[in-house]
Amino acid sequence: MEPIPLLTPYKMGQFDLAHRIVLAPLTRQRSYGNVPQPHAALYYSQRASTGGLLITEATGVSDTAQGYPDTPGIWTAEHVEAWRPIVAAVHKKGALIFCQIWHVGRVSTFDFQPGGKAPVSSTETQLGPQTSFDGHLDEYSPPRRLTVEEIPGIVDDFRKAARNAIDAGFDGVEIHGANGYLIEQFLKDGTNDRDDEYGGSLENRCRFALEIVDAVVKEVGSHRVGIRLSPFTDISDCYDSDPHSLALHMSTKLNDHDILYLHMIEPRMAIVDGRRVVPKRLLPYRKAFKGTFIAAGGYDRDEGGKAVTEGYTDLVAFGRLFLANPDLPKRFEVGAELNKYDRMTFYSSEPVIGYTDYPFLE
Q1: CA 347, 20, 289 angle in degrees (round to 5)?
Q2: Rounded to whole angstroms, how far apart are CA atoms 96 and 93?
Q3: Residues 216/162, Cβ–Cβ less than 8 Å
Q4: Binning pLDDT at 50, 70 and 90, where does residue 273 land?
Q5: DSSP readout, 314-358?
Q6: Is 44 an annotated catalytic residue?
Q7: Helical ranges in the chain per DSSP H
Q8: pTM given for the model
Q9: How far is it, in rounded angstroms, from Cα 158 to Cα 105?
Q10: Nearest Cα residue to 260 out of 358, 174, 137
């Protein structure tokens, strides 16, 4: 019997993958005091399979990168040491693991910032209150616009974080350029109101992101670097008036750096005849980018398989389905029923419930 499309092998640069199912980066808020915990070794290794690819939850590059309780860091020696056994547990299962490196920018408050200072961003425009997953309103502090002179320091934070990740044993890093955080605050004209070399034109708005890519590539090698982008989303009021041009420009310019993969989030899924259908608007960027392409955003077994078969993407990232089904590749293989995820435990600090207690098929 032929394997389903999602379970066919794929060569991603120097890495041999046994299947196309990727664990998407998922914030879980269980790294107390920004230090990864032993329970994360169980969580990630549960979702590891021979020749599989996992991407970690967003991991802060510095003490100014924080905006949520108990998200992990990778900027201190303590963080590096804490990540080592987690990475080792994944490698023991024969899987690869990339660390997603991240700065929240204005999606933060004075309380999360060193010395109670203002969060930094591309802009001074404050993010308005946002409705959280459980219905409460999250409020944010007014940000401070980064000066041109400060920007190289942030770029260097990403470089150092990438080096730390490799020192911790990670197979590579994914630069978080999506979901309304700092890099995207520079990329999109809805949040970038600068009139210097980092604002205005499309080239200027992409400068910060590409400087980070360049610094990280020079530090750890292009064969270990991916980036995640979400040109069509408006998370945290971060939107662009021409997402197509932004996505095409970035997809093309990334080729100059020869990075391993581009991970892009779909526009919102459409509901057709009662089931989710992928809008499939990422094809121009998949064609423009020369490396491995990873698509994400509401995929299921059938839609993911179709996307691979049609050559629309190389790999498919699964978030909530993988969160609730640690053996997702196996379940897809045999066509088994999936566990339902519990949204209310996504971000709790509980080290077991809703984290490592989702059942396996066997």
Answers
A1: 95
A2: 9
A3: yes
A4: confident
A5: SEEEESHHHHH-TTHHHHHHHTPPPPPP-GGGTT---SSTTTT-P
A6: no
A7: 38-46, 77-92, 151-167, 182-187, 202-220, 243-253, 283-288, 301-309, 320-324, 328-334
A8: 0.97
A9: 13
A10: 174
Residue 12: half-sphere exposure toward Cβ, Cα within 13 Å: 32
CB distance 313 to 12 below 8 Å: no
Q: Reduced to 3 states, what is the DSSP secondary structure of residue 183?
A: helix
The whole-angstrom separation of Cα 252 and Cα 65 is: 28
Query: Which candidate in 43, 44, 140, 181 is catalytic?
Result: 181
Are 223 and 260 spatial neighbours (Cβ–Cβ below 8 Å)?
yes
> What is the C-alpha separation between 290 and 232, in angstroms, rounded?
21
For residue 131, the 8-state DSSP code is: E
The residues with which 271 forms a beta bridge, in sequence order, are: 276
Beta pairing, strands 120-121 & 53-55? unpaired
Mean pLDDT of 199-218: 98
Pairwise CA distance, residues 292 & 98, whole Å: 14
Q: What is the pLDDT of residues 116-133, one digit of tens each?
A: 999 999 999 999 999 887
Alpha carbon distance 234, 244 (integer Å): 14
pLDDT in tens, 38-48: 999 999 999 99
pLDDT at 280: 78
Percent with pLDDT over 90 in the chain = 93
Scored b (16 or more CB within 10 A) or e, 333-359 reads beeeeebebeeebbbeeebeebbbebe
Compute the chain's Rg from CA coordinates. Answer: 19
Q: Encoding tokens for residue 210? A: 């590409």
Helices (H), ranges, 48-195: 77-92, 151-167, 182-187
Residues of the chain by 3-state class (helix, strand, coil), percent to 5: 35, 15, 45
* Rounded Cα distance, 42 and 85, in Å: 10
Cα dihedral 21→23→24→27 (10° resolution): 170
Q: Compute the distance between CA of residue 298 and CA of residue 180 in angstroms, rounded to an integer.
A: 18
Antiparallel, parallel or unpaired: β 10-12 and 15-17: antiparallel
Task: Reply yes or no on whether the pLDDT at 23 is more than 90.
Answer: yes
